[in-house]
Design brief:
The structure is a single chain. The protein is of the alpha/beta class. The protein is built from 15 helices and 8 strands. Helix 2 links the parallel strand 2 and strand 3. Helix 9 packs across helix 10. Bound molecules: ligand FVH.
Length: 291
Amino acid sequence: MNTTGAKQYAFLGLGNMGRALAGAALAEGRGVTVWNRTPGKSAELEERGAVAAESLEDALRSSPVVVACLFDLASVEEQLFGHADLLRGRVLVNLTTTNPEESRKIGRWAAENGVRYLDGGIMATPGMIGREGSQILYSGEEAVFEEERDLLDLWGESRYFGSDAGLASLWDLAILAGMYVMYAGFFQGAAMVGSEGVKAVDFAAIAQPFLRSMTEFLPVQAQVIDSGSYEHGGQSLEFSDLGKMVRAADDQGVSPRAVQMVQDLLREQIDAGFGHEDFERIFEGFRGGNQ
Ligand code: FVH
C-alpha cells in the first residue's frame, strides 16, 4: 500500500540496479510503484511497502515522476516511446546506460512529447546505492534536477552537467574508460606473475596499495594537460619507455597488448620529436594532435 501523503514515484525495471534505487526510496518513506517486464522480481520490495503495478500503463499513471532503469536504449524505446500520451507532463528520470547520442535521442523524443526529461549515469554498483562513494551524473532539464533533488540525493552524490541530455552519459563513459583500461593493465600484470604460478589474489594484495597511491597523481597530471604545455620537468616520454614491460610479458608467454597500447602512444610522440617532454603528452595522441 502506498504511504499516505508521501511523494509518489514509479520505478520501471527491477534488475539489480532498479531494485536498489526503488529500495532506497522506500527506505525513506516514499510512495513507490514498481513495474518489471518479467513478473516475479518485486516480492521483496512489496514486503517493504511498494505497490506492484499490474501493467506498464498502470505504473506510468501512478506517479508524477517515473524512474527508468532498463537495459539499454532499445528497451527504453520499446517500453516508453509508444506511451508519450501517458508520460506527457510527467518527469522521466532515465538511469539506463546509453551512449551520448542515444541519450540525446531520448531527450529529443521527450521534448517533442512534453515529457520532462533528466538523463542519468550511475557511478556505483547496486550495493553502493545510498552509501558514501556513490555518485550519479545528470544532464537534461535543470529544473527537474533541482525539483527532484530530494529523490536523487537518496541514491548518492548528485551532479548536474548541463541541458544537453548526452552530457551525463559522456562523463559516465569517460570515467568508465579510465576504469576498464586500468583493469586491463592490472590483468596483464596478473598474467605476467601468473606465468610463474602466482595467484591473482596474491598479486592484487601487493599491487593494490601502489595502484591506489598512483591515483593521487591524477589531479597533478590533469593540471599539466590543462596547461597545454608538457615541459614541466616531470617524467619524460623517453624515460617512460615501456619496452621492458612489453619484453617481460613476451618472454613469459603473455600477451603484452595492454602495455603495448600505452607504448604505441609513447612512441608516436617520441617519433614526432617530443621525447624530452613529459609523459602526459600522450594525451595529445587521443586528440589526434602532435603540435
Ligand atoms: N549493475 C551495475 O553495477 C551497473 C552500474 C552502472 C549502471 N548500470 C546500468 O543500469 C541499468 C540496469 O542495470 P541492472 O544491473 O539493473 O541490470 P539487470 O540486473 O541485468 O536488469 C536489467 C533490467 O532491464 C530489464 N529489461 C531488459 N530488456 C528489457 C526490455 N526490452 N523491456 C523492458 N525491460 C527490459 C530487465 O527486465 P527483465 O529481463 O527482468 O524482464 C531488468 O529489469 C543498465 O543500463 C546498466 O548498464 C548498472
